[in-house]
Amino acid sequence: MAAPQELYTAIRDEASSVLIGNEDVIERLTISLLTDGHVLLEGVPGVAKTTIANIFARALGLEFQRIQMTPDLLPADVTGTNVYRENIGEFQLQRGPIFGNVIVADEINRATPKTQSALLEAMQERQVTIEGETLELPEPFIVIATQNPIEMDGTFGLPEAQRDRFQFKLSVDIPSREDEAAVLDRFTSQPNLTSSSIEPVATSEDIQTAREAVSKVHIAPVVQSYLLDIVEATRENEYLEHGASPRAGITTLRAAQARAAIDGRDYVIPDDIKELAADALSHRLVLSTNAELSNVLPREIIEEILETVPAPSADDVLETVEV
User: Fold this and answer.
1) Best exposed site among 23, 38, 110, 165 by fewest CB in 10 Å?
2) Domains, the chain, ordered by start
3) Residue 205: helix, strand or coil by DSSP?
4) Mind listing the pLDDT tens digit for each residue in 17-65?
5) 27 alpha carbon, distance to own chain's centre
6) What is the secondary structure of 45-94 as a DSSP string?
7) Do 234 and 243 form a contact (C-beta atoms < 8 A)?
8) pTM of the model as a whole
């Protein structure tokens, strides 16, 4: 079980040579990488959302592709298209930026729903269809989308189906005064410091080995039942029109396996579920009209559910773990 823990530690330490703070974001990105997930980063301009994604890709030695999502962007601009080459007298496939390992869809909610939908097949099936031809995407493959929560003009809200494809929705907040002072000091003393300063600390083989280790992490029946209780509670909550989907439960459980592995454990504990639940479930919920009028936030609902749903004891979990 050392591989996932060592991989995360290496990524975190290398990222910290440029990035200050946001360790939770790097942890969630690592979890998603190890469990075939995708991440939606939300934050105001200037908080390093795109930089975080770039640093993450460079630390892994992966191919990084950035797509600036705009209203005039077409689906073919994302996936690619067949282009006629006059010099050879035939069409050739021009692959789009989706053919990379780490895809950053910057300001995803500025693209039209039609263009956003071009990402759906890629995110779920790890493939794209171009003019009837289905093409596999590289492995590993992760989409990191960003959006600005304060600008609504010229944006298109993500539909439920799109949101449900993201394993996590994370908030990248304004740093604390202490962290911001450290940022100013670092970039004053090292004015040429950029994400390109990051060195690769892992290979594709390392990632695959870590993924295999994560898949073997033990899930006690009582832990699985605990997660099901949480998911079911979202479907029965008075403030929700629609609760979490079965996909939400699957991806949360897999994320809990990865969190256990990078913590050096070969079994999931209830705290893994508790730690990840708000990030994994809140963006999938559909609020009722009453909740919107009452200004109830999805994360608040998840936090209240976590306080009311009883968690299994450590003894119940450990008695199913092979010593």
Assistant:
1) 23
2) 2-186+201-207 (3.40.50.300), 217-318 (1.10.8.80)
3) helix
4) 888 888 899 999 999 999 999 999 998 888 888 888 888 988 988 888 9
5) 10
6) TTS-HHHHHHHHHHHTT--EEEEE--TT--HHHHHEEEEEETTTTEEEEE
7) yes
8) 0.90
